[in-house]
Amino acid sequence: MCGITGVFAFNEIGRFNLPNISLATETLEHRGPDFQKVFVGDFVALGHRRLSIIDLKPQANQPMSAEDGRYQLVFNGEIYNYKSLRQELTSNGVHFETESDTEVLLQLLIHEGKDALDKLNGFFAFAFYDQQREEMLVARDRYGIKPLYYLEDEDRFIFASELKAILKFGIEKSIDPNSLYTYLQLNYLPAPMSMVKGVKKLMPGQYAIVKKKSVEFNSYYELKTTFEKPFQGTYEDAQVQLKALMEKAVERRLVADVPLGTFLSGGVDSSIISAIAAKKVEGLHTFSIGYKGNSFFDETEYANAVAKHIGSKHQVFSLSLDDLYGYLPKMLKSFSEPFADSSALPVYALSQLTKENVTVALSGDGADELFAGYNKHAALFRLWHPGAKEKMVTALSPLWNLLPKSRNNPFGNLARQLKKFADASRHDIQSQYWMLASLQSARKTTDLLSNSVLEDIDFESFDLWKDNLLSTLNTKSINQSLQLDQELVLQGDMLQKVDLMSMQHALEVRVPFLDHELVAFANSLPEDFKVNGKRKKMILQDTFRDILPEKIYNRPKHGFEVPLLDWLRKDLKQDIENKWLDKERIERQNVFDWDGIASLKMKLFSNNPEDSHAHVWALIVFQEWWEQYME
User: Torsion angle, CA of 229/232/234/239, rounded to 10 degrees?
Assistant: First the structure.
């Protein structure tokens, strides 16, 4: 796990960017504190920050070269099947100088080029440069676990693990209005979008071939194909296969030359990962986070029960709101583009505290998007298979409009969910998905933006992107909604959150559920193996029931959330009023509309806040980013 950056100059003007490589690489120090090195050629410069995980010796440092420097590689990630790939290459006469997966990837690319991508089991973003052919291959893993930003213009192609490194090449900085419009609806930016105009994210499963006169983008992996080969066996057959694939996926991710543990929230997903790992790692270390004095969000009793059941060495980091507040300033400074999923804050804290004990942690991310684990999936199932209860919820829509709604207590959260369900029931299936996947409507978003920003938004382009995305969902199919989740929510929100927060502390987080063999199997399963009117993630829960305590089943799903509403109303109220959303600042900035901001603040401090805290949080994150990078 590392940080990478580089530039490919197309002409003499582009070559003026080459000296910036060291400064750009230094911005990624948090991703790789162990070593920094750059390569500078005639038209290409590459930079690497290393977090040593496999083969800790200096010979495994990057950029890594081969054959008298003809080939150069910078690589972020891990290749889990590198040992079998190494054996294959060795049998063909390849000699290795290190025990690293980096050298295996380098040699595989030398011998097979872009065809090597299909053989890789792991997560990665890399750039492979052939000086003789003056050609660079840039690629990203199948699901976007590792990030890769890029900018292409007439003079250069720049890439980096984070946007902040690209900014160090002196690019012109301006807001992309369509990205801002998307961010305020989703609270994150899915690929290929970024907040800075001209900068994009490479799509998951995509590669680019960069030459002096062209940049050609192609896909080596398409998620939709995994849904096109239906599983033919019984439910029991599927359980046997799922267990075998899960154990294999976890075992692959236990290879490391540094201390390793798991995140253990007490939910089914992380509990499965931890239980399998505990069978293979003696004295496995597990870590969870809890909230002092807030039982609605605190899940440590479930994590403790799992840890006791599997015999792991468990450590709970119990934080108060004051503790979380202490993490806030540094966390906000860590975003090189706005990202407003508030659960990033506890992941930041957990990553920092976990890194004090281990360098690698396994997590349960991806399971919800594979096996239908979100409340959204249950809601979609009920919308598409309505019974008497569902029809009553829709009929009582006027009542839900009257009740106070918030995420901060069970009653308010239920009222919020019932209103959202009733509202969604009046729309087509694509609109239903978008309403449940987004946090703010298009109308409320435009109310927050200044006229000058609204004039620059290409609404036709946004609608085309959205329509193309939602075209996946053309029937009342949970599996189609899961494909959308994997394309949108997983790569844009969940994986981005884990990468950003863990790499701030040089902690490598591995996600066994996203082993591509397991993903292909999960996506082949019939949706009635995953969800019905009463249960979510059915096959996942049933398959591993024998190795987990019964206590963690049939309990409410909170997710990795923060008691955000209380926090914004109390601890951060003065900063909201006098700093982030101050009238003078809003009007001077000319990005947001003051009347819309004032109305949102009034909603936040009312008796019926609904989701206003999430919208205010998105604005806070943006304002901190704006001040750091744009002002």
Answer: -40
Say if strands 71-79 and 122-130 run parallel, antiparallel, or are unpaired.
antiparallel
Q: Which residue, among 309, 358, 384, 621, has the nearest Cα to 505 in the 3D structure?
A: 358
Could you say which DSSP state residue 449 is in? Answer: B
Please tell me whether the overall predicted TM-score, pTM, comes out greater than 0.90 for this model.
yes
pLDDT digit string, tens, across residues 429-443: 999 999 999 999 999
Structure tokens at 439: 């946090």
pLDDT in tens, 541-598: 999 999 999 988 866 665 556 778 888 998 899 999 999 999 999 999 999 999 999 9
* 267-299 exposure pattern, b = at least 16 Cβ within 10 A, e = fewer: bbbbbbbbbbbbeebeebbbbbbbbeeeeebbb
Q: Mention every residue, 6+ apart, whose C-beta is less than 8 A from residue 210.
A: 8, 135, 136, 137, 138, 157
Backbone angles phi, psi at 415, to 5 degrees: -60, -40
- One-letter amino acid identity for 345? L
Name the nearest CA neighbour of 519 among 85, 118, 148, 227: 227
Residue 24 CA to residue 17 CA, distance in Å, equals 10
Q: Is 233 helix (H, G, I), strand (E, B) or coil?
A: coil
- Coil vs helix vs strand at 123: strand
Element (H, E) at 74: strand 71-79
Cα-flanking dihedrals φ and ψ of residue 221, to 5°?
Answer: -145, 135
